[in-house]
Amino acid sequence: MRLDRFGETRILPFLPSVRSFGLALALVVLVIGILSPPPAGMTQEIQLVLTVFFFALVLWLTKAIPYTLSSVLSVVLLFTLELTDTFEEAAIGYASSLFFFLFVLLLLGNAISKVELDDRVAKGLLSSQSTPRRTIRSLASNLLILSFFMPSAMARTVTFIPVVRRLTTVYGLDQNSNFTRSSFILLGHVNPIASMALMTGGGMAIITSEIINSTVRAVTWVEWGILMIPPTLVLYGLAAISAGLIYGVNDTVTVEESADEGGLGADVDEEPPPLTRDQRIVAVVMLGAILGWVIGSFIGLPTIVPAIGAGVILAMPGIDIITTEDIRDVSWGVLFLIGAMFSILSVMETSGTLGYVVDGITQYIAFSSLPTWQAVTILLILAVCIRVFFSTASAAIVIVLPIILEFGEISGANSLYLALSVLILIGSTTFLPFNTSAVLISFDRGPLTNREVFGFGFVTMCLAAVIISLSWFLYWPLVT
Q: H-helix or E-strand containing 31?
């Protein structure tokens, strides 16, 4: 094996890398889509829209070029191929409040980590006087609590990885022990589930709420909590219990303060030092933002207002917690991908492409003649199949959810329930390490294997299916 100049591992030097193959495939898709005549029943406009869609999809899935460039290229193609009258229409996705809302949330999440407030909370929630099994339960509880004011599941994973390693040393266990494996499963697979509880809990929830508000009906921050907190808590609890049961973590070893001199075992129970100036500021500002989201849901205040207010305060002269460097370090590639995808979806809607795709699939699957539960089952299976190819659940939801909702209308399914079900299922399904950032980090830094990642991903998918069924028929009808 060797590394090419982009740092990719090449199994055989004469075989093309995934990035090279992806770029070549994307170009083939583009050339064929532009030059070949459209099939019978398809207009040239619809063919070109689908061409841009699949061209962008191949580039994003293979990461042939950076997300930022592939996203801008896709928008340029919409205009160049005359699928929009103006470039402004082609770039309409970047005018979405979601684009700016995610940008501000990324800044706020980075600010929490920057002042080490997340690390302080994490350490404060752990106790040295516990057994491995109790520590697993404590870790699951702490991750859940932290998710309510720290949106990023990846940030929570990074925060707790060193804590898990130190606890493994405290117990005198091997780094490949069942305790360590169970802990990394919690950090990777179970941890992101908690982010679905709140509308502002992470990219998955934010994107889903945006699509629901624009295509189904308005859902407030509080209503989202009523609909999603109970199902999410039950799913999270079942997944956490499953992680402990599958790995059979023992409950006999106890922590001695002398077992880790100078480490976590020696100082975790000590009185924490006072909050620093920056930690106090970030804590107060974030609590204010959460309060703004709650109050705003009753008075119709856009969710971006409290977020941008918090960001501005943290960037004010004399505070300077959010700086120019922090803005440069934001995940611009993900933001540009989301904006480009919304642009493409907008053109798909205005050109009738979505309707054409829906009509084409209904020729093979008669959704209108199927019982609702069968139609919904098929749609959710379709969502899982598509989700496997994406490196983030957020990107999968952006692409899958609008199409699923189109089919849902034909089958007569409740669009709100269907949207929430897609979120729960996609947010709980991780078959490959790259499917979720938190899983990828835990896989890279922990002892997990590809088989374990796939296996527990299947477990959480099945649990999600059970929760969706119970919510659809028992819980959601009671609260809507």
A: helix 18-35
